[in-house]
Design brief:
The structure holds two protein chains of two kinds.
Chain A (H helix, E strand, L loop, with lengths): L1 H20 L2 H17 L1 H4 L2 H18 L3 H7 L5 H30 L11 E3 H26 L24 H9 L2 H22 L15 H25 L26 H9 L8 H4 L1 H57 L6 E2 L4 E2 L1
Helix pairs in contact in A: 2-10, 8-9, 8-10, 9-13
Chain B lengths: L1 H8 L1 H6 L8 H9 L10 E3 L5 H4 L2 H20 L9 H6 L1 H4 L5 H25 L8 H23 L4 H12 L18 E2 L2 E2 L7 H6 L6 H32 L8
Antiparallel strand pairs in B: 2-3
Helix pairs in contact in B: 5-8, 8-9, 9-10, 9-12
Classes of the chains: A mainly alpha, B mainly alpha.
Chain lengths: 367, 257
């Protein structure tokens, strides 16, 4: 009996620890560090034994977590099932890709032919490809039908404009954007940033002038391109979706995976602006009435970031600059800095409780 | 076996499939060349290109899921009326009243799956560097397809007309209100005016255009229905044709040079 109780309370403290680890700042930092460690050690991590062990540990953690009612409740919501599937599949294909990259990189070093080598080795589409397609199609159909039978499509109460659910969540694939709304005003999070994401994606092939790594898996030949893309894909896409789905509850408050969704917890308050920090706390003077003057510290900060950033980055990117030329480099560094603005603002929010960097509320022009 | 051979040598079979049984190189090539659907493929293909570990089959699965969405979508349209009075109850009745009423599940989970597969397709194209010349343009076509796929999901989300639908679309479309210059709460909108009369207000801004009103209402339902069932699928189909055409014209699935 005592042993049981002890085990129970040990379990509770583990859960509490996980809840704390899942708080926004820890969650983000841990994911970023995990990504970097993975990229640095991809040759080791993708070894079948290591990857298998990680997968087994993940499965075990999931099974143990399913003993907790709050966890089960959120994972089993029908519309959240695709996200669980997505996490599993993304982890798997990342392993698959980096496993092949590791093998290819080793072969490149040893001067051996690539996995994909033999451009002239052609096979006939009938039967080789057509049958693969047929089999994939049958498996996919079967899986989809099983999914459809097991899991009824959800339908809530009829639409009622007078009763707003709390939290009101966007469809899961937009939850990254909704998470951005916490840190940026809608004109940025909902309009400008999504637009820039689309433009930036389209721009990738025109910016990336590195001729190597075309048509085969590799990491060593294009480390910067792949790391940047994965930062966007894994951190700003998958992690923010996981965050928005599983950890955001009523009043858009954060809740740990083993925590009860308490509707009475008030929404977070934020009130610090650089203008206060600069004029009141630093210069100890009243805030000027003219809004340009008032926001000058923030404007200078932002301007310095976007104009000075590319120049400072040149220290690392000298070779790339020579390859790309001025225009490509400017576009690339602008997109890169914009992408990094997201985690930077998150960190500023958590550490300084910062509201806006530039807050010209008169024009709705807040950054 | 005899019967099969008899059928295959008869006039009917021969008129549909003009080549013989695909057993040697020539007839196998003909099997692809003389079939309008299989003709999406080249006759022969790089060995690495058909390895599942290279493409993960994700482009193909995305296309397949798109077809599933078309078929199940038509089955849904047979029973669904896009009006505030009927929409919810038409959806509610599927499992109960329609024989083999799985089309709603297939359509919904298929849509979720398609979003996952399209992202993974993009990830594999990136990780294999397949966007590099000469495939830059096809990557751009792909990004537009990605945006359209997300829009298809977004417009479809409203159609069940339940609380989830209405409020997800409300949250999503509220952002349009803040579009610079053309949303009435967006930066710069206040400057767009004639003689002190603002041109951009709640009844004329970007969100109004999206929702056909100042809130998610009956006109929004109809608008999203038309976009979801007619406009977006047609555009996606056209772009898919361009996408597949370009995969071939750019030299097939990429491989080391
Ligand atoms: C409705 C969505 C889409 C469908 C049905 C589709 C389908 C396909 C198929 C069947 C292929 C042949 C090779 C493969 O299966 O990987 C392909 C290749 C390709 N796709 Fe897509 N695709 C879609 C969206 C996209 C997106 C979002 C992108 C990128 C942003 C993209 C970029 C490309 C490129 C560059 C190739 C050539 C790859 C190579 O040659 O290795 N596609 N697509």
């Amino acid at each position: 009996m005592d042993a049981l109780l002890a085990a129970d309370s040990a379990m509770d403290s583990v859960k509490h620890f996980v809840n704390v680890l899942c708080e926004p700042h820890w969650f983000l930092i841990i994911s970023v560090v995990a990504l970097i460690v993975f990229l640095l050690g991809y040759r080791w991590f993708t070894k079948p034994v290591v990857a298998g062990a990680i997968a087994a540990l993940g499965t075990l953690a999931f099974i143990v977590s399913c003993q907790d009612p709050n966890f089960v409740k959120i994972v089993q919501k029908a519309d959240n099932v695709p996200i669980v599937i997505m996490i599993v599949v993304v982890s798997y294909v990342l392993w698959l890709a980096f496993r092949q990259a590791a093998i290819n990189d080793k072969r490149l070093e040893e001067g051996k032919p690539l996995l994909e080598a033999g451009a002239d080795d052609k096979v006939l589409v009938w039967p080789d490809l057509v049958y693969i397609e047929l089999i994939a199609l049958v498996i996919c159909t079967a899986a989809l039908i099983v999914w459809a039978i097991m899991l009824p499509a959800p339908l809530e109460q009829p639409a009622d404009p007078n009763v707003a659910p709390n939290p009101a969540k966007a469809p899961w694939y937009f939850l990254g954007l909704q998470e951005m709304l916490v840190y940026f005003d809608p004109w940025l999070a909902g309009v400008v940033f999504p637009g820039l994401i689309i433009v930036g994606l389209i721009a990738i092939p025109y910016i990336d002038k590195n001729p190597r790594g075309n048509g085969y898996y590799t990491f060593k030949e294009r480390p910067f391109a792949i790391s940047t893309f994965l930062f966007g894909f894994v951190i700003l896409w998958v992690v923010l979706i996981v965050f928005g789905t599983f950890l955001r509850g009523p009043n858009w408050n954060f809740f740990g995976p083993f925590e009860f969704w308490d509707h009475n917890r008030p929404a977070a308050l934020l009130n610090r602006e650089p203008r206060d920090m600069f004029w009141i706390e630093f210069l100890q003077r009243p805030i000027p009435g003219n809004y340009i003057l008032r926001e000058l510290p923030g404007i200078l900060l932002l301007g310095g970031y976007f104009l000075g950033g590319p120049i400072i980055l040149l220290v690392f990117f000298r070779r790339m600059y020579r390859q790309m030329g001025f225009l490509r480099y400017s576009v690339m560094s602008f997109l890169l800095l914009t992408m990094l603005l997201m985690p930077i603002k998150m960190v500023l929010r958590w550490t300084l409780n910062l509201h806006y960097i530039v807050g010209i509320t008169e024009w709705f022009l807040n950054v | 076996m005899r019967l099969m051979n008899w059928v295959r040598e008869g006039q009917i079979w021969g008129s549909v499939f003009r080549h013989g049984v695909p057993r040697d190189r020539r007839t196998r090539a003909m099997a692809i060349l003389s079939n309008v659907f299989l003709h999406l493929h080249p006759v022969a293909i790089r060995k690495s290109g058909i390895r599942l570990s290279f493409t993960w089959c994700m482009g193909g699965l995305t296309f397949f899921l798109f077809l599933v969405e078309v078929v199940t979508g038509v089955l849904l349209m047979f029973y669904y009326r896009p009006t505030v009075e009927y929409a919810y109850f038409d959806i509610e009745g599927f499992r109960a009243h329609v024989t083999l009423g799985l089309q709603r599940e297939l359509h919904r989970w298929g849509a979720h799956a398609m979003i996952i597969t399209i992202w993974l397709h993009m990830l594999r194209v990136f990780l294999t560097g397949s966007y590099k010349p000469p495939r830059e343009f096809n990557w751009s076509v792909g990004v537009i397809l990605l945006v359209l796929t997300l829009l298809l999901s977004f417009t479809g989300y409203l159609l069940p007309w339940d609380q989830l639908a209405m409020w997800a679309i409300t949250v999503g479309s509220n952002m349009a209100r803040a579009t610079p210059f053309v949303g009435y709460e967006g930066p710069g909108a206040a400057f767009i005016q004639i003689g002190g009369v603002p041109l951009v207000h709640a009844g004329s801004d970007a969100r109004f255009g999206l929702l056909a009103g100042t809130f998610v209402g009956p006109a929004t339902l109809l608008r999203f229905y038309v976009l979801h069932c007619v406009f977006l699928p047609v555009v996606v189909t056209v772009l898919l044709a361009v996408h597949f055409w370009r995969v071939r014209k750019d030299g097939g699935i990429s491989g080391p040079l």
